[in-house]
Amino acid sequence: MFAANVAVNYLINLIVVDDVVWIWYYDRQGTIQCSGINFIQDLPRFMVLLYALQRFDLGDWGRNMDFKAVKEEGGGVKEGLLRFELGGMDLVLHTDDPERVTHYGLKGRATNVFPVTSKKLAEEHQGIEEDGMVAKIFWGEEKRTSEPEILANVYEIAKLQETVKDHVPQLLGHYKVDNPTSAVREALGMPNPTKGSRVLYILVFRKLRPITELNAEDFFNVWRQCISCHLALWKGGVLHRDVSPGNMMYYRTKKGVLMGVLNDYDLSSLAIALGPQGNERTGTVPFMALDHLSLKGQAGGIKHLYRHDLESFIWVLVWVSFRYREGVLLPRETRPLDEWATLGAVACGKEKSWFLNNFVDVKPPGIHPQLWRLVVECLSVLKLDGDRRMDLRVQQELSSDLEAGEGQSPNAEEVELDDEVFLSKFTSTRSWVRLSKGLP
Questions:
Q1: DSSP character for 418?
Q2: What is the mean pLDDT of residues 334-340?
Q3: How many angstroms separate the CA atoms of 153 and 150, rounded?
Q4: pTM exceeding the 0.85 threshold for the entire prediction
């Protein structure tokens, strides 16, 4: 219920064990538990609690009253619809739409994306239909650079870079609900109340289509455009850091031209941002680089580099090529790689490491021949570069000053390839060149 209902800020629950009751409070920052009340030995205090709860209204129980029901002409309530009319927006949220995307869990961003209609936004943005929008509602970290701020930088880069222009999401409106989860913790005098504090964001975008519904040639075209957009943004100081199939979308122009869109910047950061954002563990586990799926990576000990995001693009290629046929998801019984989405980060890293060393032996039946060649060549480049970096580390270890004493780390830093040089190792493969012929 907590994840499925975007109009719920927090939950309150009572847990009873024998003659002791505890109050548990859940929100997107975490869980708060009160001291137990023995309702037999301390009946007066328990009665005061019951009287207080009896007087709670919907807002006190955690309901966000900014989201309102849509009424029918006869006075009833229309199911599956909510109104939101703050920030100069007149949104009608279609919460029961089959295209809705929901991320379940008690803690974290709890991102929900579903279609919305808005007469006002349609009038303000030429070419956008009243029903051609989606709302993204999520609980972002309060101290993190917000997605609207990131997108403002993205749009500045788009003015100068053709590979970014028309390849990023169009933000139509946004609103931040100024009620951080840290407020209740500060009121209770809890230690570090602002650590992990979250606030609710409502962002409205132009509606896009998922990359997974495309056939092999069109998928490569959009995937390649997203990689070009990503590189230009990286050079411009916008670090995406969450490359996954769900964040790669497309649309067609009025002339039918296919346009890839690198989507979703709520986990992105700016290169100039203050604070320890460079080593933060961001991303979607099945598509994260192997470095970040290691114990050291999970502990935040590995700096996020361009090659890590490019590696994520390769894992997206593998994921879609193995699990979809001509834009259709394979049945569960014949669909490989499902376990990657259910394993923890380190366990998933071990599975992917095995896959990288044995991918030639697990060719899925029915995969598009050109796409399979691209997968083979890209994974080969990935493996060879990993071997190159490991060889460098071994050489550094062996050539380190023996007099420095056992346990000392080598002083020499691991040599990384230039970002464009690393990308060129993929773009120069025969399959990439062949598939790119005739594409803009």
A1: P
A2: 92
A3: 5
A4: yes
